[in-house]
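Subject: sequence -> structure tokens, single chain

Hey, anyone have a minute? Need the predicted structure for the following. Not urgent.
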Amino acid sequence: MLTAVYRGSIVLVLLFAYFTHNVRASIGPTNTATVSGSVSDSTGKPVANADVALRGTKSATTRTDARGFFVFIGMPFGAYQISAAAVGLGTATRALTVDGDMNIAIQYEPASQNGLKVIAQVSSMANARFNVTPASVTQVSPRANAFDGKTSWRAILEQIPGISEAGAQGGTNVMAVLPDGPLVPMQISIDGSLPYETATLLDDMPLIGNGASATSALQPGKGTNLADYPLNGFDSADVVRGPGANAPSIVDSIGGSFVLHGPSVVNQNSYDLSLSTDPYGGIVANAFAAVRWKKLSMEFTYGVNDSPGPFSHNGVVASGPFGSLPSTINGLAFSGTSPSLIYAPGYSATSNTYYGYTTSLLTASALMPGTAWSEHGGSAALNYAFSPSLSIGIFYAGQSMDMASEPLANYTNTFVPPAAYTGSIPAGQSIDPSTSFLSPLSTPRASSLVEEKITAQLGRGVLRLAALQNRIFSSYGFSSPATATVQLFGGGCIASSPGGTSGCAPGYAPIVFNGANATVTYPFTFSYKNFDGSDNRDTLLSYATPLGENMHAGASFVTSYYNIPTQIFEKFSFSPNPTILNCGLTEDSETTNEVRVFIGGSPTPKTSLDLSMYFVNAHYHVPNPVGYSSATGTSPNGWLDPQYSYSAPRLGFVWRPTAAVALRAAAGGGFAEAPLNDLVGSSSATPNCGVSFCTESVKNVNLQPERSFSFDVGTDIRLRQDTVLSFDLYRSNLYGQLYSSTSLTGTFGGLPVCTTQYGNLGLSRFEGVLLDLRHDTPRGLYWSLSGGLTRGYLVSVPAGFYNLAGVTCTPATPANCQNTTVIPNINFNGTFAAAIPYAQGLGRFGYRWSPSKYVDLVGTYYGNNNSYGQPAFVELDGHVGYPLSKRSSLLVTFRNITGLYDGVVQTWSPGNFYGVPTVSGPPWGLDKEEYGPRTILLTTNFSL
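Reply:
Had a minute. Here:
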């Protein structure tokens, strides 16, 4: 129904705009930008008093100052010609498309060439970019990174201080076990915010997906996993920190927003091809084509990543389900010391610490079908201009991946040698991470993102209408092997006649292995399959119009719908007694409607001001938890439809005392919805019991959304024409942050029951400082240094927060207390799904002879509490670029030069679950992840 409404809206507006397209004013958004830059002679010396003109949608002229700088403020988006004229040097012009704030370096050629060249346009924004927006903005180019051979969003975003991967990680994530694999998750965390508190948008519309864990079907709305989208499909993206006044949305934007941009209009044909190796010896290829034919503009990208993976089809241990010993070895019945379940040091029922196994028999080198994957992804964009005042466009981005077999979480098997064992494995030896818990099945995953949009000029203003359909599909599972060929260490008792010696039962005799190959079978098999999908549909309607020459105003409406309509099928087979569980269909959904009214512009030549007011309504459709059946996804007591409303302003201000200095400030509110299954989700009539305790989840239908008020102050200073200093200081107060409260509430079947319920905290706070210094030149030495310090902590808790069952908590009666590890004014640690990186940094130093001929060294500092769960470390990469011809070049990447944490498979990594701000450590033990293999990658680029 919603899809039909969206399609119908587009058709109506298209017809209306088509019959009114005789308006001849040039089309384009009325958003304005600042175009700044510098002029220098052929030696790099600044040119003062050069006349610079910008002519197009709006015309303006200025002169460079004593240091060669110039600036134009409040230029509407559109096509322009920029020209520079200097005494004795001549005049020349270049075409320019303004679709955002730009910094342009203009340098004269030597006199013999008698011309002007523009060294950098859009690309300069990612290097020595000069930010003149109210918010702190860092720009990245996903497509450029893909064409440089990178395969992971995480690798490019975590190099930005204050940004980290958030959400379930490591071994608990079927997609994250192989570092540098194609679907390593990236649920972005900006300035410490959690995944569901960080918005990911495309053209002002939110992309909402499942959380990135092996149980993502049970984590609807807990953050958007960027790994579901192709890197090569997006030419540019902005990391917008804090409360930017021009933010398209304040929903799920506590720390900021990650804004993806679709392709722009093509002005001339171009073609590019990139061929690379991947970290495991596979092939990565990306192709790009931009074509302009009359009024039709087209862009296409396609990429493939085929890899054998790190094991080359022969390297993963296949242990039995839950560490069980083989039932036969080489066809003979086997009996040995059964593995005993042990708990890690510090285990308690409330902390849920991870576990391992102790066994007298270790297995290694089982043959598996392999870990090869094949990923295909790309995009297509078409834009047709009916007239200067009417255009329509469609944009598609998607990818599919199939992984033949992937190792899951790796448990530690500790070796306890049997009697008479004199082999090479000492007592207490652990094989980790080569011991795999189970053998995964095929893991297909696919995404499909389609955007349709219309832009029409009505009067002096611009009307935009867009519809977005964003779908994610995944299927995964795992099974224990029935039979495997392995190496064995240790021993036990094997069927023999007469047997009955050395502690073995009658009919069994002792046997000891020290690496011998053997064929084993296991006493029972276990399998699990799951298929899930998510459906996110948005629509956008906006209108903006100029107010005089320097101001603009407008309004926008965005509605976003999200649910999980796909059947979730789970099958558990325990041979010889199979059990099947079908979870049925789920109809949980959430809808957000947001209205934004804004006004802004440049009231004076040296200032810009933006003011926006946001009105939000969030609507959930969820089953009543009373009587809810997780097996059927239904409730006999019907459905609940809670709604929440919120409104907040955002204000931004920029002052340009000189062309080389920008002082900026922004402040305003934010709003974050509770993920669906935090509000209400699967429940059962009885607790879920394990070996030593039971758990149950009590849903809170009165859970409130989070609200925030944030500010950011900063400055950009151009020290020289090619050197820019940026500084930002921010703080965000978060009211009602979500918290998972766990307490012992009784017993069931003689076991203690741990009850979990999500609730709201009082006041939490994120704050930090960012510093960035960049020196970028077309030739010669270039370098950059950036760093950030981030802090997150709880300020206050609600009244009665520590009281259990309404009884006042006192130290003398700890049995009446809960949540006692939650202490205000203590920094959040790894218990949050977003590990807040207390310190991050990046340093780059290199020399460039030409754009494709350079060498550099990049060091990335991951401070304490980093998303890898490792102690603070520095990772080094090196790059060498060399032109092979006028249209081809070679890039050599030396990755992880120091070899730190270069394992090719993650160790047992419980992941970070949502979210307990305590001082006692993570709820599932330490979360350790490998950074990825030390390797040399080769990338060849061809262009036409």
